[in-house]
Design brief:
This is NAD(P)H-binding protein. By secondary structure, the chain is an alpha/beta fold. It has a domain at 2-141 and 168-196 and 256-270: NAD(P)-binding Rossmann-like Domain (Rossmann fold, 3-Layer(aba) Sandwich), CATH 3.40.50.720. 44% of the residues lie in helices and 16% in strands. The chain contains 13 helices and nine strands. The protein has helices at residues 10-22, 39-42, 56-63, 81-94, 117-127, 144-148, 151-154, 170-182, 200-211, 222-231, 236-250, 260-265, 272-277, and strands at 2-5, 28-32, 47-50, 68-71, 99-105, 132-138, 156-159, 189-193, 216-219. The strands form two sheets. A seven-stranded parallel beta sheet has the order 3-2-1-4-5-6-8, sandwiched between helices. β4 (68-71), α4 (81-94) and β5 (99-105) form a beta-alpha-beta unit. It is globular and about 55 Å long. The two termini are 34 Å apart. It binds NADP nicotinamide-adenine-dinucleotide phosphate. Residues 5-6, 8-12, 33-34, 37, 52-54, 72-76, 84, 103, 105, 138, 140-142 line the site of NADP nicotinamide-adenine-dinucleotide phosphate.
Length: 278
């Protein structure tokens, strides 16, 4: 059996959908904080049990009988997220899982992007768990509107100086995870899954082609950008954290290309331009 956490969310919910296309439902389990949110999976024959990273006993029960456990990275900025991941890893090991998989991030170890430290610490716990592990180091995903700002209204992408970022379609990542989970090939340790990196210049070009009007890329000085974000209601620590992403990108930290995602999908991952168009 494969048990998945975070299946009530977008990423691992899509992974379970892909698993259902590949495996009988009775070989799939979901561990959910709120089982009502996973009712649609239960109705299709998936085993749904309660499990929260704050409740080791329930977690262990939700992992019982699992050959593989896929752990989502938790996302509560106020919580001890690494401690939560440790609890989940220990529960999976205690439940007898043969392999633990975890949704990590591109370039997690030694990253120039400070939030990645959570993933580096979690990979260290996995490495010491005594269980085979796979860290799915995903490219960046999320809202392109948030990344690019109100370019549709303004015709301008006004952000700090950047560099290449492997902006990757979350649906492609979810599909690749299902291919790994359902397949025979063993992936040990960190595995980078990302689309070719794109810069904000590339996005401006794609936006221009998409709309037939010129969308301009304007570089805003770092401190001016932070001041503007705060004036627009963004908490300063969030603005400064986001700034570190642009700074890491401009240092070239996220550059480079890994062909594994295309290999697993059997096609090219959706490009930045395709993601913008969809
Ligand atoms: N690589 C990137 O660029 C990037 C970007 C954004 C996010 N992320 C990470 O990727 C993860 C998945 O993304 P997503 O889009 O699927 O996010 P999402 O839609 O917010 O889903 C998060 C999932 O994690 C579950 N969860 C959170 N904390 C938990 C805990 N303490 N115990 C058990 N389950 C917990 C949530 O359960 P509930 O339904 O009960 O809330 C939900 O199912 C995020 O949590 C975040 O860590 C990475």
């Amino acid at each position: 059996m494969i048990v998945v956490t975070g299946a009530t969310g977008t990423l691992n919910g899509a992974t379970v959908e892909h698993l259902l296309r590949r495996l009988p439902a009775d070989r799939i389990g979901v561990s959910a904080r709120d089982v009502a949110k996973a009712q649609h999976f239960a109705e299709r024959g998936v085993r749904v049990r309660p499990g929260s990273y704050d409740d080791p006993v329930a977690l262990r029960d939700s992992f019982a009988g699992a050959d593989q456990v896929l752990l989502v990275s938790a996302n509560d900025p106020a919580a001890d997220v690494v401690g939560q991941h440790r609890t989940a890893i220990e529960a999976a090991a205690a439940a007898g899982a043969r392999r633990i998989l975890y949704t990590s991030q591109h370039g997690a170890v030694g990253s120039a992007y400070p939030p990645a430290a959570i993933h580096a610490a979690t990979e260290e716990i996995l490495a010491g768990s005594g269980v085979a592990w796979t860290s799915l180091r995903y490219g960046f995903f999320g809202s392109l509107d948030q990344l690019l700002g109100p370019w549709r209204q303004t015709g301008v992408i006004a952000k700090p100086a950047d560099g290449p970022i492997p902006w990757t379609d979350r649906a492609d990542l979810a599909e690749a995870a299902a291919v790994i989970l359902a397949g025979d090939r063993a992936f040990d340790g960190p595995v980078t899954l990302s689309a070719p990196a794109a810069t904000l210049d590339d996005f401006a070009e794609a936006a221009s082609e998409l709309t037939g009007r010129t969308v301009e890329r304007v570089v805003v000085e770092d401190e001016q950008w932070v001041t503007e974000q705060i004036a627009n209601g963004t908490p300063e620590f969030v603005a400064r954290l986001t700034l570190t992403m642009f700074q890491a990108a401009r240092s070239g930290y996220f550059a480079g290309h890994n062909p594994l995602l295309a290999e697993l999908l059997g096609r090219e991952p959706r490009s930045a331009a395709e993601q913008l168009a969809s």
